[in-house]
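BACKBONE STRUCTURE TOKENS:
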Amino acid sequence: MKPLHELVRSNVWKLAAMNKTAKMSDRQDNQILLNANENPYNKPLNRYPDPLQRELKTELSRIKNIATEKTFIGNGTHEAIDLCFRVFCTPQKDNVVSIEPTSGVYKVFAELNDIEYRSVLLNDNFQISVNQLLSACDSNTKIIWLCSPNDPTGNNFDVEQIEEVLQRFDGIVVIDESYSDFSTVPVFRKRLDEFPNIIVLNSLNNAWGCAALNIGMAFASAPIIDIFNQVKYPYNICQPVQEAALEQLKNRIEIEKHVSILLLERDKLLSAFAELSFCEKVYPSESNFILVKMTNAEDIYHYLMDKGIIVSDKTNVTLCDNCLRITVGTKNENTLLLSALRQY
């Protein structure tokens, strides 16, 4: 890996070095707070939230077994994705490399930040080719984006291939592990010390069922997280959301029960889809959704919509012609889905 100061945008590096003023997070409960033009009345909503979400990070650290100084909490994973571009990539100069098909959000934020986005096709098994991926890189490539389990394909990439990318690429490798709680494959967020150039994304939206709170996380070396905290909006997570997330983290046993149920339902759907005459292929899944290749995905998509069942049509996604991505629902929702499909 190149030295961090060579990867971070020069203006961002200078900003992070200069920012040594007192922070709102330095406040103490016994202090008289007259520095932020807050209203002294209407407690507890009168004060700005903790910009570093210390209580929430402490609890996440206990659950994820990752130090708080290596944890960033954002307004969804989208904030962390945007920060990766803003921190490391100079507009109209640098580029990033990703795989295809994958989540479209990486390309969206590349375009918003005026960064060239290069993509490399996955093979027929939806696995990466390390040589092709690295061949797409040049001296201005700052980030390689990987999503594992991948959206929309649902599969994990081979651990050995990801390790090789991390070892051979001297820039930043971002691994989006938002769906990893539905998988049995070891996660890379536990290997931060081994790979200093890695940033791992995670979320409370999926397995934890907290999409309404939209809590995203990035795990990386402490110096990277420190820069993220310098660049982010000061109060990116409001206090009621921080408190609600803390309450949800107390329900870990209940959440694990829900995940187990979803995994059982996922396996049932995998088997049931394979029996449908108009289903050409059911792709293996390590996530809470299944990619299914149909004889006519667009017709089936509209048919289900007329039945009040909304799925995701991926027909226009590269390598996903005539494919639907179907999220695993409750037992009742899945029963209604299968009933509708069997009547098609």
About this structure: The longest helix spans residues 252-274. Residues 134 and 236 are 35 Å apart (CA to CA).
